[in-house]
Amino acid sequence: MPRTLLEPRFQVEHLSILDSEGTLDTALEPKLAPDELRALWRAMLLGRRLDERMVRLQRQGRIGTFAPLKGQEASQIGSVAALRTTDWMVPSFRETAAMIWRGWPIERLLLFFAGYLEGGQPAPAQHDLPVTIPVATQLPHAVGLAYAAQYRGDDAVVMVYFGDGATSEGDFHEALNFAGVWQVPVVFVCQNNQWAISVPLKKQTHSRTLAQKAHAYGVPGLQVDGNDVLAVRVAAGEAVARARAGQGPTLLECITYRLGVHTTADDPTKYRSEEEVAAWERKDPLTRFRAYLEGRGLLEAGLEETLDAEIAEAVRRFEATPPADALAMFDHVYAEPPAHLVAQREELARRLAANPAAPPADSDAVPPDATPMRGQRLTRR
Ligand SMILES: Cc1ncc(C[n+]2csc(CCOP(=O)(O)OP(=O)(O)O)c2C)c(N)n1
Ligand SMILES: [Mg+2]
Fold first, then answer.
1. Which pLDDT score, from 0 to 100, does residue 82 have?
2. How many CB atoms lie within 10 A of CB 303?
3. H or E element: which one contains 235?
4. Which residues contact 318 (CB under 8 A, 6 or more apart)?
5. Which ligand 1 atom sits nearest the alpha carbon of residue 197?
6. Which of 57, 122, 141, 358 is deepest in the core (most CB within 10 A)?
7. CATH assignment of 13-319?
8. If you write DSSP's letter for every residue of 20-40 in order, what string do you get?
9. What is the arithmetic mean of pLDDT over 31-37?
10. Is 254 in the pocket of ligand 1 (CB under 6 A)?
């Protein structure tokens, strides 16, 4: 028997409309209304200004660990802008700009990063899931939401965010497989920012692209310049329209870069070069979009000051909030908490009651009867 090639053969398309040199492919330029272009710019700039402020707030000890999005504004805003409010948005942990676009108040995000339970709660009518810290676990959730939309016969589309590192998790493959089998209305937005903490993409996969992984599941996969908001907006618009028309899921691989730290607990100088970062700074998504809008006479004077004032007002409201209930960290995980957590909760309650203002003096200490969890460091008194 001869060896034959099976059809179809796979090809991966890469979409770029406005490149880092400011060159515009006029044939591909989307016909977006001036108001939409201004809204995209406002959201990207707000994302950048807030991001820089959040890092400073963390350095000042006013919020906890934060994952900055600097450099990924076009990937987030270009994609989320393709959704209707009745669609669902499922974030990972770096989607601050996309969440604000979806209506999350800035002070609620500040509360989240300061450890307040209510900071993680979407408004009751909001079709968003909360921040997901465990890598890739949100992907099967998103497919479940899309399956529910399909089952109920409503026309909602689900957009789920994740990183390049998440594509090495089983959850990514399971989610894509089921999405393909069920042909559910979900758009997978992979922000390929080249790094998963200190693991570079080349150690993550031997594939030429991440987009091609979709083809194995019979799902269209497209690579897009993730620093080009016009390209992301076009690709996301097409994927959302296909999903809404019952034509199933799409994987978008947005090629971008995390210009800042992985989180405020990270030091990227330990694993990547200044030259690499400088090269990506020249591809900054804000620089090229600002130049494009300037050329079209759509730049609003004084916008940075307006956004900074909006952020300052949100910080003021956030800081006027009474302290969070530290005991709430024990709630909402177990219906019946295990004994060691019950003991820890009681101990913290005792310490807080004894000295409400001060943190526990010996925070590593555990009661002698506590059972160590796997990987847990216990310090016996
Ligand atoms: C299941 C799981 N494993 C490990 C971690 C620790 N962790 C947090 S972020 C991260 C890297 C994620 O990389 P990527 O998916 O590329 O997203 P990025 O941080 O670049 O946005 C890891 C390993 C985690 N949160 N969850
Ligand atoms: Mg990454």
1. 98
2. 15
3. helix 229-244
4. 106, 107, 110, 111, 114
5. 11
6. 57
7. 3.40.50.970
8. TT--B-TTT-----HHHHHHH
9. 98
10. no
Instruction: Give the residue carrying structure tokens 């707000």.
Output: 46
Tokens of 93: 């942990």
Average pLDDT in the 14-43 region?
Answer: 96
Q: Rounded distance, CA 278 to CA 300, Å? A: 28
> Taking the complete model, does pTM exceed 0.85, yes or no?
yes
pLDDT at 362 over 70: no
Per DSSP, the three-state class of 270 is helix
The three-point CA angle 158-107-101 to 5° equals: 30
Q: How high is the pLDDT of residue 44?
A: 98
For residue 133, the ligand closest to its alpha carbon is: 1
C-alpha 262 to ligand 1 mean position (Å)? 9
- In the chain, where the domains are located: 13-319, 326-380
Ligand 1 atom with minimal separation from the 262 CA? 19
**How far, in Å, CA of 234 to CA of 236, rounded?**
6
Which tokens is 331 given? 């709630």
SS3 of residue 12 by DSSP: coil
CB 68 within 8 Å of CB 260? yes
User: pLDDT tens for residues 191-231?
Assistant: 999 999 999 999 999 999 999 999 999 999 999 999 999 99
β-strands 195-196, 199-200: how paired?
A: antiparallel
